[in-house]
Amino acid sequence: FADERVSAFSWALKDERLIFAMDQDGNERHQLYLHSPGGADAVQLTGAPEVKHIIGPWSPDGDAIAYANNRRDPAFFDIYVQEVTNGEPRMVYRDDGSNSAVAWSPDGRYLVLSRSNTYLYNDLLLLDLESEETRRLTPDGELASFGILGEIDCRGVSWDRDSKGLYLTTNQGHEFRALAYIDVAGGELAYLA
Q: Residue 80's beta-bridge partner residues?
């Protein structure tokens, strides 16, 4: 439905709207757009053609989206939250690294972030959206992947219904990936299979 390349999308949790990422002429500076079923044209949410955006999850109430961009510095990706209807982007996490927003807790309080250490390894962080404080969920310096790493983002991390833990795949301490659960309060990882 578009003349340009669409590289990613994220469905809203409560209706049929979706956010998609599209660049222009293959420049890889993806902008984010809102598409509503039955609507006319998609609405552009980000209007910074020199900035790269990495699409993230919707808020549980469907009012906002989290994403990463390199607006502050072309070498680093910070995390933003933006109300979908007439919202201004708000930086919620600033870090000199390659970060992406991965999963929004069902209670709306937390975001799980991925910080890529290499193309193969990453850390997961827990961002409290009320205090904007973060803490590490995965061991420091661990040569492991948590979730499914893509070119510049991380997927495959899901909250349980009570916002108490995360289901994910990891190869921590293993040669191959396996399904695991991280208890958010204590940080313990348990393999499920």
A: 67, 91
The residue type found at 117 is N
Helices (H) and strands (E) in the chain, counts: 0, 18
Which has the higher per-residue pLDDT, 160 or 10? 160
Q: What's the rounded Cα separation, in Å, for the pair 29 and 50?
A: 6
Q: What is the pLDDT of residue 6?
A: 82
CA distance 72 to 83: 20
Alpha carbon distance, N-terminus to C-terminus of the chain: 41
> By the 8 A CB rule, do 190 and 184 touch?
no
- How many percent of the chain have pLDDT more than 90? 60
CA pseudo-torsion sign 93, 158, 11, 177: positive
Percent of the chain predicted with pLDDT > 70 = 96
Helix (H) or strand (E) holding 66: strand 64-69
How far is Cα 16 from Cα 102, in angstroms, rounded to an integer?
Answer: 20
